[in-house]
Request: fold
Amino acid sequence: MEGRTASRSKAGGYNAYDQAASLTLARQYGAYNVGGTIKYIESSIAGVKGTGYAVDMGLKRGLKGIPLSVGVAVQNLGPGIKYLSQRDPLPLSVSAGIMFMPVQGFMLNFDARRYVYDKYTAYSLGTEYALFGGPETMSGLNLRGGVNGGAAAAGAAGAFSAGAGIKLMNADLDYAMSPEGKLGSTQRITLKKKF
Reply:
């Protein structure tokens, strides 16, 4: 990135990065699935490092007699990231979604996410197709794709996202790529193990 001084003249370049490490626990209680995540977050801008933590919580329920699930979640509950003496809030969001599986191995998803501090709502429409395997198997391969909308404030409205997931020996390795407007794209790799 190009750096600027207080008088807005060029000052060379600088680097920036964000990374997070998280621990997630989830459990099924009858028709309900509940889960939570604790995240440690680290961010660096021009060599100034900030750290923080956050909590995510979610609840999902399958409906009887139809291949439909509904869910709600709250993400990024926490004090924010502290840079030197300044604390910046995380993008607190509240979301609700629905998942429909018209045929085994093919899912359609819709969700709405309200960004509390930024005061806008984003919408996502996505699909997942299991080439083989499935949620209750020990191995499988899934392809995913989706479109984002309503996020004009984030500059990524209408952006296409894609990903894939491999399940082997009851562990999941997922990859996802999504555009983030002027900031470029986000690439995410997740490793999950079920105990």
